[in-house]
Amino acid sequence: MRLTSPPIFAILVLATALDSAAYASTYVVYIPMDSPIYTELDTLNSLGMLETYLSEVKPISRVEAARLTLEAERLISQREGAPSPALPLAREMIADLRAELAEEIGWLENDAEDDQPTMLKPIERIEVQYVYSAGQRRGFGPFDNQGEQLYATEATPLLPNNDDLPTSIGSNEVFRTSGWAGLKGFFTLYGEGAVAGPITRSPQGVDHSTRDRVSLLRGEAVADFGNAAISFGEHEMYWGTGHFGSLSEGDNARPFPALRVANVHPSYLPGFLRYLGPMRYEVFFGQLDHYRPFEQPPGLRTRSFPYPWLSGQIVVFKPLSTFEIGITHVIMFGGSGNDNYSWMGFFGRATGISPGNPASGNTNSQAGFTTKFYLPRLRNSYLYLDVLGEDNLTSEVPKIGGALPFAAVSYQGGIFVPRVTADGLTTARLEFLDTSQRYGFHSDSLYWAYKDRLMGNPIGPNAFQINVGVGRWLSRSLKMDVDYFHTERDPEITNGGGNTEFSNGMSIDLLRLPQPEISLRDSLVGVNLYTALEWVNNLNTAPGVNALRAVAQLSVSVDPASSTWRFH
């Protein structure tokens, strides 16, 4: 079975062409996924103070976050005649965003987004972290002896979606710093580097090797043409509506080098298609690593293909103020020994229009959709659901759901209540995850892992998880989230043994939004304390292997108040 995406590809080509003529150019600096800016925007959106924020495509740029801040400010001013108990919290979020995005908001308010000189921000953010980790890491494969496999290892236990920041058991120290430069009004360079791991030894790498403490967490060169940003480098990705992980592309593994195109601000399609509402899209084409082991009987042709290509597309629409829908598609192909195709075959695979056949070069595809439904009468609560399928048939049933165009289907969804109390200071979330027995697997080394880490949801295949969480703003800038999670991971049917892994755990996340510090010349200082504890029965589905796992992370970030250097 093959998944193709001509409709998605055509829509995105059209959108890119339209975007390039819709706006002048600007500097595009993407916001790291651990930034509190996303917490502030998500809060404003859940309170009904944003109209065009499509959170299914992350990261977003600083200038887009600035535009959303002004949008929220405008909507609040329009509702002054009908005050809401949640307005004080919304105003606090806007005040904090104004401080964090002062430069970009100034561009927009002065109509100068497309008229900036060459500039340099040598230090955008400095962050120091202490991470204490205890407990054995989960392993993912190889489970299967019937032709499909997956190789990956958990990164830091209970600290997923962290770009595979290098750590080891015990104490770890982390230093991170980021900066950016803008050239000629349209070309941007940005990056964030880290020194991480225990001081006395190197952190754990792939295949139980050691790993360099120094790493580039993210970094790109970005050229903005109108509203279309074309970039190359290592770019974080988080596609979908899931709060605790993403079924499709996520930031559990390290970013990989890729060329991508995305719109900076939401776009609208022409003609009657405009009724689909504001749209966000992203297209990428990149290459994965050499570490792609695959076990097979002696004498057979190797099915380990180093350096495969990866191509993906996502498009998200908001046709109604209460409804969002998106489509995702990613295809993995090629690699050494798996590339017996022509240039047309390469193009067909890269676009997803014509995946070819296994004889000339095998492929592995994922495709799915995301949905979000807002319920304004229930204090703007919203339901969300992601569905993702893979093109490999499963041993569960030949196909799941006759109406669905794929096999090996995984599901993630839930409900979020942003105003348990009318003032919006208390929130609640229930999220579930159910992954297919073949989630991430393939019949050769085209499985969904990068440098020994799962690229999608960190729970892995053949698993079920439920999360229940309650959040509370203790003050206008201090929030605490408490979550309970229950996980079940079943052994592979074809593995011939093992017991279901059961685990129960709890986490506490305390976040203080960045606030001006007088002693640091009004630099913004943010603090995040995260702790989690989990008890696991039959770890890695091994009978009788029980373990206690724990993690504690303290992060302190500083956004220097020093002005950007400008060169007119």
Structure explained in plain terms:
The chain contains 6 helices and 25 strands. By secondary structure, it is mainly beta. Helix 3 (62-78) crosses helix 5. A hairpin with a 5-residue loop joins strand 22 and strand 23 (523-537). Mean pLDDT is 89; it is low at 1-5 and 393-405. It is globular, with a radius of gyration of 23 Å. The chain has one domain (6-567): Capsule assembly protein Wzi (Porin, Beta Barrel), CATH 2.40.160.130. It starts with 5 loop residues before the first helix and ends with a strand. Helices cover 13% and strands 40% of the residues.
Overall helicity: 10-25%
**Average pLDDT value?**
89
Full CATH superfamily name: Capsule assembly protein Wzi
Number-wise, the strands total 25
Highest-level CATH class: Mainly Beta
Q: Which word captures the global form?
A: globular
Q: From the alpha-carbon coordinates, what is the Rg to the nearest angstrom? A: 23 Å
How far do the termini sit from each other?
57 Å
The largest β sheet comes out as: 18 strands, antiparallel, barrel
- Percent of residues in beta strands? 35-45%
What keyword list fits this structure?
568 residues, mainly beta, Porin, 18-stranded antiparallel barrel, two-stranded antiparallel sheet, 40% strand, globular, disordered N terminus
